[in-house]
Amino acid sequence: MKNELATMDFTAGLGNLEDELLGLMDAELDDAINSADIFTLQDPVEWIERYFFIPELNGPIVLGEYQKQAIHEAMKKDDDGLMLYTMIVWSDIKKSIKSCVAAAMGLWVAFTRPWASVKVIANDLKQADSRVFFYMRRAIELNPEIAMLASVKMYNILILKQHSRIEAIPIDPKGEAGGNDSMVIYSEAWGFKGDAAERMWTESTLSSTQYGKSFRWVETYAGFSGESAILENLYLSGVKDGHPVDWSNEYDPPVGAYVNEATGQFTLWNTTPRLPWQSAQYYAQEAAVLTPMEFDRVHRNQWASSENAFVPMEWWHACQSSDIKELAHDQPIIVSVDAAVTNDLFAITAVSGRDSDDGDVDVRYTRVWRPPRGGRIDYAEPEAELRRLCKEYNVIEVCYDMYQLADMAGRFRSEMIARMYSFNQSNMRLIADKRLYDMIRDRKIHHRGEPELAEHIENSNAKSDGHNKMRIIKRSQVLKIDLAVCLSMAVHRACHWRL
Hints:
Layout: H1 2-6, H2 14-34, H3 44-51, E1 53-54, E2 59-60, H4 65-74, E3 87-91, H5 98-112, E4 117-122, H6 125-130, H7 132-142, H8 144-147, E5 150-153, E6 156-159, E7 164-170, E8 183-187, H9 194-203, E9 215-220, H10 229-240, E10 243-244, E11 257-260, E12 265-269, H11 280-289, H12 292-299, E13 307-309, H13 313-318, E14 332-338, E15 346-353, E16 361-369, H14 380-392, E17 394-401, H15 406-414, E18 420-423, H16 427-441, E19 445-446, H17 451-458, E20 460-464, E21 470-474, H18 482-497
Parallel strand pairs: 3-9, 3-12, 4-7, 4-8, 8-9, 14-17, 16-19, 17-18
Antiparallel strand pairs: 1-2, 5-6, 6-7, 10-11, 11-12, 13-20, 14-15, 15-16, 20-21
């Protein structure tokens, strides 16, 4: 489906639509044009605060002072009327309306420049349509003064009379080569990774025929060092190789605003909350649900590593409990199994809920089997142990890694030994690993200090996907984390069953 969307002819039929609308609405358009300066106002800040509507105010947006100054700096021209900067990097903390600012700038270009072409590029079409382009469409629908001046059809906006077009497109380097755009907006550039993104970046470069009149606008917050290559290069060029603009010291703390005349780049890299709604209460709430690394990345605009220790060991040790009651044979438990043949271990973990209804989980059982040097694990012994657990205790489910244990699971099902649950190791693992992180942080996991489990927790790093999900990975290839993976699966399923 993504490939079909990526190659869709987004402009099909727009020419006929434009002719039809212009023919039907000439009189109304003339009246609107004569009564407004929407097509002529060259100050982008004034235009945005007059015409770009948002629902929160039921009227035009109000920009922060640093945002106004940054826009004015970014749009500066030389004595010949050519733009000083053709690359604008607008990197701000989350909830600083950076997507709205990009959307407003795109509409300003489309409304004030005849025959302008504005493209909004994101990792996929859904992202392109759900952020910057969505705010453009919404602003048009909210403002009756300009609603009749634009036609919105699917992923295109046509500005009548100006013959300007705005298109939302996914990364598709084959389809976008050789554009003659007035403005290219790159949304959430921290996620631009891989060959397709790099080719798209190259192919969507500005045309020489538009030199000094066109620009690229990159809106984002910080990415992951070593992974967000496009953004990291822009950061180095703009922040490290640039110099602060004069007005950046008017604020306390100073706004991170930089210019690099040699590359024609203006960079806003703000790391501080400066807007009225960015309250201490909001950040306290966010700090409670995000990892410290993710909090600093999205709310302080700081570069992060995609890999860090899974949890601080002080958190894990704080979960040790001396009041875990003896497991009754009728008490429901979840058993999880993670297996390998040669390099890794065969691991089993069991957990139960606590007597309270607060969702806490007790670790009830952990055990591992190691392969002999140069040999393979004999599954007979761990399978016998698993059968014993299912016979002696109230095992309501055995969750397992489907890649190594399909045969064993099939036997357990056919013999009706236990309910078997095949645990998805892709997206479900991301959710489960984040849940385990949260529960350790909140001391909702209780254990007796099992040394091998603690070792596997300490051996674990967490690889973030940038969307508040994580995956437990090995800190080193020689270290073992099988019990940590088992615990993640078991806790996730225990929460599902609300033990």
